[in-house]
Automatic annotation (TrEMBL):
SMART domains for the chain: TGFB (SM00204)
Compartment(s) where it occurs, according to its Swiss-Prot or TrEMBL record: Secreted
Described function: Growth factor that supports the survival of sympathetic neurons in culture. May regulate the development and maintenance of the CNS. Involved in the development of the neural crest. Might control the size of non-neuronal cell population such as haemopoietic cells. Acts by binding to its coreceptor, GFRA2, leading to autophosphorylation and activation of the RET receptor. Heparan sulfate-binding is required for signaling.
Superkingdom, taxonomy of origin: Eukaryota
Gene Ontology MF term list: glial cell-derived neurotrophic factor receptor binding; growth factor activity; receptor tyrosine kinase binding
InterPro entries: Cystine-knot_cytokine, GDNF_fam, TGF-b_C
TGF-beta family profile domain: residues covered: 100-205
UniProt similarity note: Belongs to the TGF-beta family. GDNF subfamily.
GO cellular component: extracellular region
Protein name: Neurturin
Name of the gene encoding the protein in the UniProt record: Nrtn
Organism from which the protein derives: Chloropsis cyanopogon
PROSITE patterns, per database record: TGF_BETA_2 (PS51362)
Region annotation (Disordered) ranges: 1-43
Length: 205
């Protein structure tokens, strides 16, 4: 039995424990600094949206039968083949804004005279000749030349007052005058002259 109280002092920390504590503090500080320098991750809400979209698409595909999936794939392949045959190189899902602007500008170009150098055989008139001619043609829109006649005619067509007749409800960019006659030799050394081949003046008619 001991009378009186004894004071216990804490044991001195060993060098290994101090090293461990210093290592843990340094590692925690380095991990915190590395976490601060790490790239920002996607938010959980975005991940949930992404997962929900994947789930919807997977459920949609599971709802198709094998025959329907084959039909869908064949339709996509046929569409891609048609785009490649028409000179396209890619098949975007959504049209670009730049391409839409280009098409809008092309649709609203005024009626004007243009020219193109082609061979006589390419004219489609039935002549076989390698001689080249300057073919002038009319191209452009005539929105500014719309008259009351065109507006009324368009209204009559929309109301089905005029059904069977082949008519135009808007002015068209056409030649107002033609250039001089064009003469050439065909592949058999026969001489031909074609009149009213190239446009000389264009207008909305």
């Amino acid at each position: 039995m001991f009378s009186g109280s004894r004071e216990f002092s804490p044991l001195p920390s060993s060098p290994s424990s101090s090293r461990d504590s210093s290592y843990s503090s340094s590692s925690s500080s380095s991990s915190s600094s590395s976490s601060l320098l790490a790239a920002p991750r996607r938010s959980p809400r975005a991940l949930q949206r992404h997962g929900s979209l994947l789930a919807q698409y997977s459920a949609l595909l599971e709802s198709y039968t094998e025959g329907e999936i084959r039909q869908l794939i064949s339709a996509l392949v046929e569409r891609y083949r048609q785009a490649m045959n028409s000179g396209g190189h890619e098949l975007p899902l959504f049209p670009r804004a730049g391409s839409r602007r280009k098409r809008a500008r092309a649709r609203h170009k005024p009626c004007e005279l243009r020219e193109l150098e082609v061979s006589v055989s390419e004219l489609g008139l039935g002549y076989e000749s390698d001689e080249t001619v300057l073919f002038r043609y009319c191209s452009g829109t005539c929105e500014a030349a719309v008259r009351s006649y065109d507006l009324s005619l368009k209204s009559m067509r929309s109301r089905r007052k005029i059904r069977k007749e082949k008519i135009r409800a808007r002015p068209c960019c056409r030649p107002l005058a033609y250039d001089d006659d064009v003469s050439f030799l065909d592949a058999y050394n026969r001489y031909y002259t074609v009149n009213e081949l190239s446009a000389k003046e264009c207008g909305c008619v």
